[in-house]
C-alpha cells in the first residue's frame, strides 16, 4: 500500500478533522455544517454548532447533533469545501 | 484519538442525553420530540412523552415509544435544537 | 449507564408490552393495532387481533400476524398512543 | 420472558402455520395466498398453490413458489386474515 | 419441525428445481424465464436460455445469466407458474 | 447437489467469463458492456473497455472501471446476451 | 483463478489508482472527479481536489472529501474515463 498525504485509510481524514468544521451531505440533499467531535466505524458522527443548510443558506440551527452514518454521502473539511 | 468536549464516541452523546428531551428526525421527514430513556448500538431508541411533529407543530401524541434505529437521520438534544 | 423508568435497553419496552395492545407504524404509512405476543432482536413481531388502520379508521382485520422488523418505524403501547 | 398463547418467539407462529394457508403481503403492495411449506431465519418462504392477488381478486396462479424474505411486510394465517 | 412435501427448508425447492425452467420475478417488475443451473445462500442464481419478459411477452434473449439475489422477489418452477 | 453444465455455484459463471465480454445491467436501468477482469464475493467487478449503454446505443466510454456489486441486477456473457 | 492485466481482485484496480485522478459515479446521478488518496473494503474513499460535476461541467469544488462507499455505482481512472 502506498500512503499519500498522510492519509492511509479513509477514516484517517475523519480523525484529522476532529475539532474542525466539516460539511456533511446526506442522501435526499440535506446538508449540514458543524464541528466534528466524534465518529465511529459506521460513520455515525457527532457534530457541534450544527447548521442545516438548504441551497447554501441556513435553514435550522441544531447545536449538538448525532448523525447516523448510513444516510451520509460525503464529509468534507469546511476549509476546503466552503471556499 | 483526540477527545473533544468529553465526547469520544458518537454514542457518548446519546448516553449523556438520557433523561433529557431530544429531537429525532426520521427519513421521510417525520420528526419526534421526547425524553430519551434508552438506546442500543443499532440506534434503536425508547422515548417517553413523544410528540410527532409536522412543520414545527404537534401532529400526534404517542407517549412511550420504541423507534427503530434504521429510519433515523439525526438525534439532537432539544435544549440546543429547539432554541 | 443510568436507568430511567425501569427501561435500560430499548427491548425492555417491548418485553413489558407483551400481552398488551400496541400501535405499530410501518414505512409507507401503514399502521397496525394489535396485542403483542412475541418479538426478537430483529424486531420481528407477532401480534394478535390485528387491525390494519388507514387515517385512523380500520381497513382490514388480520387476526394473528407475523410482522417483519425491517419495515417498522415505531412501536407504541396503545394505552399511551391512542389516547 | 412471559409466553403468551404458546408463541414465545415470532418464528413460532410460522412453525405452527406449516401446512396451512397464509396471506403474505410484500412491499409494493403485492399479496400472495398459499400453503406454507417451509421458512428460514431470513423469512424466506416456500408456499404451494400460490395465488397472486390484486385488490382482493386473483391475478395469477404460481403453484410452488420461493419467496425472498426481505420483500415481506407481514405473514398472516389465512384462517384469521381472510375471514 | 414438520416436513411437508419433502421440502424442509426454502432452499430445498431451489435444489429440486436445478435443470428445470423457472420463472424469476425481480423488484421493479422485471421477469425472467430460464433453466436454473446454480444458486447460493444469497439466492444469487445462474440461469441458462434466459428470456427477459414484459407483460407476458419476450423482450430480450440473454442466454447464460448471473442474477444477483437481492433484487429477487420470487422464484417459481415454470411448470406450475406458467400453466 | 447436482451439477449442470459445469456450473455448480453462481460464481463459477463469473470465473469462466474472465477475459470475456459481459453485459452488466444495473438498478435504475444503466447498462455496461466490457471485458470482465476480476470479481469478488460481493460481486464487485472490474471491467475493461467499458461502454455505458442507453437504449442499445453507446452513451459513454469509460475504459477500466470498478463496479460496486450492490447496484448490479444481472451479468451475462456478451456472446449470448448480445446476439 | 486466472489473472488478467495484473488485476486479480477488484480492489487491485483501486490500489493501482492511488495518487491518480478518478471519476466516481454515485446513485442519484452525482459525479465526482478527484485524486484517490485512500479506500477501504467498504469502498469508502478519500479523494483530494474534488469537483462535483453535473452534466459534464463543474458544479462545486470540495477539496479533500470522504465519500461513503454505499452510495457509489462505479469508480474509473480518469485517464480512461474522461478521454
Question: Can you give a write-up of this model?
Answer:
Seven copies of one chain form a homoheptamer. In chain A, 13% of the residues lie in helices and 51% in strands. Chain A is mainly beta and 83 residues long. Chain A is built from two helices and five strands, in the order αβββββα. The model of chain A has no long low-confidence stretch (mean pLDDT 88). The N and C termini of chain A lie far apart (32 Å). The longest helix of chain A is centred in the N-terminal third of the chain and has 7 residues. Chain A is globular and about 35 Å long. The first copy, chain A, has one domain: Roll (SH3 type barrels). Chain A has a five-stranded antiparallel beta sheet. Chains in contact: A-B, A-G, B-C, C-D, D-E, E-F, F-G. Chains C and D meet through strand 2, strand 3 and strand 4 of C and helix 1, strand 5 and helix 2 of D. Strand 4 of chain D pairs antiparallel with strand 5 of chain E, so a sheet runs across the interface.
Question: How would you briefly describe this protein structure?
Answer:
Helices cover 13% and strands 51% of the residues of chain A. The first copy, chain A, has 83 residues and is mainly beta.
Amino acid at each position: 500500500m502506498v500512503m499519500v498525504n498522510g492519509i492511509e485509510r479513509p477514516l484517517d481524514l475523519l480523525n484529522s478533522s476532529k475539532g474542525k468544521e466539516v460539511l456533511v451531505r446526506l442522501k435526499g440533499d440535506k446538508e449540514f455544517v458543524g464541528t466534528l467531535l466524534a465518529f465511529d466505524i459506521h460513520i455515525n458522527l457527532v457534530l457541534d454548532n450544527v447548521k442545516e443548510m438548504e441551497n447554501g443558506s441556513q435553514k435550522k440551527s441544531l447545536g449538538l447533533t448525532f448523525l447516523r452514518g448510513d444516510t451520509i454521502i460525503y464529509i468534507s473539511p469546511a476549509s476546503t469545501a466552503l471556499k
